[in-house]
TrEMBL record:
It holds the Pfam family DPRP. This is Cryptochrome/photolyase family protein. PANTHER family: SLR1343 PROTEIN. Transmembrane segments: none annotated. It comes from the Bacteria. Gene3D superfamilies: 1.25.40.80, Deoxyribodipyrimidine photolyase-related, DNA Cyclobutane Dipyrimidine Photolyase, subunit A, domain 3, HUPs.
Length: 507
């Protein structure tokens, strides 16, 4: 009896578990479906990227002689959801069971489990740590901290290890990083790819079917197959990795990419494997082509943060995205959808997101995320925004970054402190403030940077929770030393700003 082998849009790896299980007579099922394309209103470039990559991947499998039943979005027989397509294909091919690789989202894991056909969900072993390994690591720990997990992953992979010791004698070189960046005309941007006929057909489809989703569809310049993704990797290793470390926390308003790799779309869709990306970085270090602090910082993001976030998502369970530890209920303001704002940092971070479906980590954390947290925005709305607007967004990685790291809505599972800052941090790490209508040096008054007002207001509102936090508790000393009239003025002006935000007035 034929079996169906399910390959989802973010499982485009030749050695994904379900494909390794293929036997003669099996039918590989791939489907562009509205259920996946609309569970949030994804950025049009994200839909186009995945559909083009899916079509090309299917073509490669067919070229190997495998049988692929591929459904395009506009196929009149399309059942428009993964379960309905599996049932339709099972009837068509007389298949009685489905082999899948476990999806990266609880919603789909459950949908497959509920299918009225036997479904085997194989572990997704494209990740370094299995669920069991992460659970084992997490059990009996009072706090789950990425740094300890990361060291285990270094030992496990042998990456940047000299025997049982870390290369250079330290696990983490972040103290050499965190430098601001300067405008640099010679900095190499990631390679751009002109759409080929397959991609152009998909772009036309997306333009017709998703005209109202937030974000520009064209120009579209992402790679959509493994060969292109490998080109992006090679380019990053040759031109940007060496400077990655020092500038990884920097922001420049006219440079959306700096020395970031822009590899997350390819890693998350399966076109590149985390191991090969890290091996390439480690090899460049071993060859003396890049500094250790850059290679280490980059590898940590992948075998540390990326794996840790996935571990948390599966450890915490399906209700994680509903957490709201700080009881925040404000609606996401229209500026997140491109409504004009005088706040230059937000205006640029959102415009860049609209144009590229991309922002780098520190923009996501310290601009859009920081503002949402300071303003007390409902974390579920924030979560949906991030899931919608970024090309690399899948719940397993997006939710722990947003609900956990950025919004502290999980009460401290991911991070030991909330990532909040006044305008001072943004000014130090970027060139946004120079071009802003607000004054970053002003703590109160008409022109005061809203981050300055909201920072203290946030800390004052959440004093009970954070005053005893070992990482930020000390800041309350500064607040307490402030003149009470000044404290009142800050809080009044913060309240007035938030009232304008709620009223939909320009801010
Ligand atoms: P680089 O800076 O070049 O880093 C290299 C790689 O490290 C990335 O490609 C990524 O795979 C990995 N990485 C770095 N930081 C993280 C992290 N915190 N968690 C997981 N992986 C990491 N990343 C996603 O892949 N999808 C998301 O939906 C996503 N949402 C985020 C939301 C918020 C609020 C924050 C603060 C971070 C989010 N991240 C997400 C993490 C990070 O911002 C992106 O991985 C990174 O910006 C992708 O760009 P890059 O490939 O140029 O990364
Ligand atoms: C994100 C996405 C989109 C937009 N469309 C599809 C699709 O049509 N077919 C498909 O198989 N997968 C798609 N995906 C990726 C899935 O949403 C993803 O597999 C789950 O969210 C689990 O990570
Ligand atoms: Fe952003 Fe404040 Fe700087 Fe303006 S002054 S760019 S609002 S941090």
């Amino acid at each position: 009896m034929a079996r169906l082998i399910l390959i989802l849009g973010d499982q485009l790896s030749r050695d994904v578990a379900a494909l390794r299980a293929v036997q003669p007579g099996d039918v590989i099922v791939m489907a562009e479906v509205m259920a996946e394309a609309s569970y949030v209103r994804h950025h049009p470039q994200k839909i186009a990227f995945l559909f083009a990559a899916m079509r090309k991947f299917a073509g490669q499998l067919r070229a190997e002689g495998l049988t692929v039943a591929y459904t395009t979005l506009d196929d009149p027989d399309n059942g428009q959801s993964i379960p309905s397509e599996l049932l339709r294909r099972a009837a068509q091919h007389g298949a009685t069971r489905v082999i899948a690789t476990e999806p990266g989202e609880w919603r789909l894991i459950r949908a497959l489990a509920d299918l009225p056909l036997p479904v085997t969900q194989l572990p997704d072993d494209r990740f370094l740590a299995s669920h069991a390994e992460f659970q084992d690591w997490a059990k009996d720990r009072k706090e789950l901290r990425m740094e300890w997990f990361y060291r285990d992953m270094r030992r496990k992979t042998g990456l940047l290890m000299e025997g049982d010791q870390p290369a250079g004698g330290q696990w983490n070189f972040d103290h050499d990083n965190r430098k601001p960046a300067r405008a640099d005309l010679l900095r190499q941007a990631p390679p751009r790819f002109d759409p080929d006929p397959v991609t152009t057909e998909v772009l036309d489809l997306v333009a017709a079917r998703f005209p109202d989703n937030f974000g520009r569809l064209r120009p579209f310049a992402y790679a959509t197959d493994r060969a292109g993704a490998l080109q992006v990797l090679d380019h990053f290793i040759a031109h940007s990795l060496d400077d990655f470390g020092p500038t990884q926390d920097a922001m420049l308003q006219d440079d959306p990419f700096l020395h970031h790799s822009v590899l997350s779309p390819y890693l998350n869709a399966g076109l590149l494997s985390p191991r090969e990306v890290c091996d390439a970085a480690a090899k460049a270090y071993a060859a003396g082509q890049v500094r250790l602090n850059s290679a280490e910082g980059f590898i940590r993001q992948i075998i540390g943060w990326r794996e840790f976030m996935r571990g948390i998502y599966f450890l915490e369970g399906p209700e994680y995205t509903s957490r709201n530890a700080l009881n925040h209920h404000r609606n996401l303001p229209p500026l997140y959808w491109g409504a004009p704002t005088a706040m230059n940092c937000l205006s640029h971070a959102v415009a860049q997101t609209r144009d590229h479906a991309y922002a780098h980590h520190i923009q996501r954390l310290m601009v859009t995320g920081n503002f949402a947290l300071l303003a007390g925005i409902d974390p579920h709305q924030v979560h949906e925004w991030y899931l919608e607007v970024y090309i690399d967004a899948y719940e397993w990685v997006e939710a722990p970054n947003v609900i956990g790291m950025s919004q502290f809505a999980d009460g401290g599972v991911v991070g030991s402190k909330p990532y909040v800052s006044s305008g001072n941090y943004i000014n130090k790490m970027s060139d946004y403030c120079k071009g802003c209508a607000y004054k970053v040096a002003d703590k109160t008054g008409d022109k005061a940077c809203p981050f300055n007002l909201l920072y203290w207001d946030f800390l004052a509102r959440h004093r009970d929770r954070f005053a005893t936090n070992p990482r930020i508790g000390r800041i309350y000393g500064t607040w307490d030393r402030m003149d009470p009239d000044r404290q009142s003025l800050i809080r009044e002006q913060a309240a007035a700003f938030l009232a304008r935000l709620d009223a939909g007035d320009p801010v």
